[in-house]
Amino acid sequence: MQTLAYYNGKISEIDEMMIPLTDRGNYFGDGVYDATVVRNYRIFGVDEHIERFFNSMAAVEIQPPFTRDELKNLLQELVEKLAPTSHLVYWQITRGSALRAHQYPVASAPNLTVTIMPNPVTRELQMRNHAIRTEEDIRFYMANVKTLNLLPNVLAFERAVQAGVDETVFYRKLADGQTRVTEAAHSNIHIILDGALVTAPADNLILGGIARKHLLAAAHELNLPVVERAYTLAELQRADEIILSSSGLFAGRVTEIDGVPAGGRASELFLPLQERVIDEWFALTE
Fold this sequence. Notes:
about 290 residues, alpha+beta, nine-stranded mixed sheet, six-stranded antiparallel sheet
């Protein structure tokens, strides 16, 4: 198999899997998901990703029909059906299948989907420079829950693609006229400013990324001060370094914002941090 799909016990190639039209994920995006990278059959941060998945299920009142260990074992079994190369493993759960109605279905069990597909991870891709664009964050106030409702993120990322850049970064306008940077279309974003790593607080305006967690831990190990606070668009633009982090990009350096050169001015702080998190990933997946 080149790819793998799992749906409630059925297994096939991704493009051969069929699911019921009545799955509430089709009608309402009524579900949550998580994803991480795999190499040599080792699932990076699997316990952390599963814990976040269970937190997301609790936030939207989906009762899982499995334990954390049962899900972990299933993911490992599925990963081992493919070659020991780099893959992305994605899993989601929806509230169940029923005729379309806003209220929860009474007697429908949740539906679990897993997909695994090739996802090359190289040091070269991790270490290249990135360009970003910014736009106002008009999404809802549940960004901390990894729901299937990603249309605003999809549109924002497509605008980045059309602009020829790598990512769209969101900001919210505050009552005092300032702007708070929240996150990106599918990444967390951080800055190095005045000798410290500054990152948005893990509240309901951002998703608490697993890569974010590892980035902060690496900063502590390197004695780089970490400050979790709201920061502004103006601070983003004048930061010494700007860093994207996600399940597929552990510490990506940003050197351009809205067509203007930015960041890239504190290599003595950034490069050891980037090397530490990249080395951790490769070491854990050997």
